[in-house]
Specification:
about 210 residues, alpha+beta, eight-stranded mixed sheet, 5 helices, 8 strands
């Protein structure tokens, strides 16, 4: 199998090298759309607070680096118990991304956190929170396709603070699908749905209890 650097990979390369196919059928990725997990009053209160905290940061841009993880992602992972056994977390090396805007070069980073080797959390950090989550789709898929458990599906969440996008990929056959885009600028609080999807994935990935 050819070696592709994650930071340089494109969707076209993944499709030509791995035969990766984008699946449109909703049956392939029901984990994001068929939600059975409910939210407790305390969880609703905490998620409202997280959105309010991020909204406060957005009132005085630029948003400082690491704020995405500190203000949005870290408390959600803590609420879901992802920092405790049987889950384990490791980080992958960061890569730098750049974009041009009105003649000014904007720099940012992409960090990847891994849970259970099956859930990859890709965080786009920048002095501007408007780096689109689509910038990290090829990189996240490249990690999912390198899943050491080829018979198990891998899941990804890409977040830039404001936007959230879930991915699901399988190696055999090489297929992937994405959720709809969740955003904190939409009316209401779409962190509710993001949290519910993560709850579903937590249940899917948690090892069965042994007697």
């Amino acid at each position: 199998m050819p070696t592709i650097a994650a930071q340089d990979v494109t969707l076209a390369q993944l499709k030509s090298s791995l035969g990766l196919r984008h699946v449109q059928e909703p049956e392939f990725f029901p984990e994001w759309s068929q939600l059975s997990a409910s939210l407790s009053p305390l969880e609703v209160q905490m998620l409202d607070r997280i959105k309010a905290n991020f909204s406060s940061l957005m009132e005085e841009p630029p948003v400082m680096e690491n704020s995405v993880k500190m203000v949005v992602l870290a408390p959600i992972l803590d609420m879901l118990g992802f920092y405790q056994p049987p889950f384990s977390l490791r980080t992958e090396p960061s890569i730098e991304v750049t974009t041009e805007d009105e003649g000014v070069r904007i720099r940012g980073r992409i960090d990847v956190l891994v849970l259970q080797n099956q859930l990859w959390l890709t965080v786009i950090e920048s002095k501007r929170s408007d780096f689109s989550v689509t910038r990290a789709i090829p990189q996240t898929l490249s990690y999912l396709m390198a899943n050491p458990q080829p018979t198990q599906p891998g899941f990804g969440l890409i977040v830039n603070g404001n936007e959230f996008l879930f991915l699901k990929a399988t190696r055999q056959p090489a297929e992937y699908a994405n959720s709809r885009l969740f955003s904190l600028i939409n009316p209401g609080n779409e962190l509710y749905q993001v949290f519910q999807v993560l709850k579903e994935l937590r249940s899917t990935l948690e090892p069965p209890c042994s007697d």
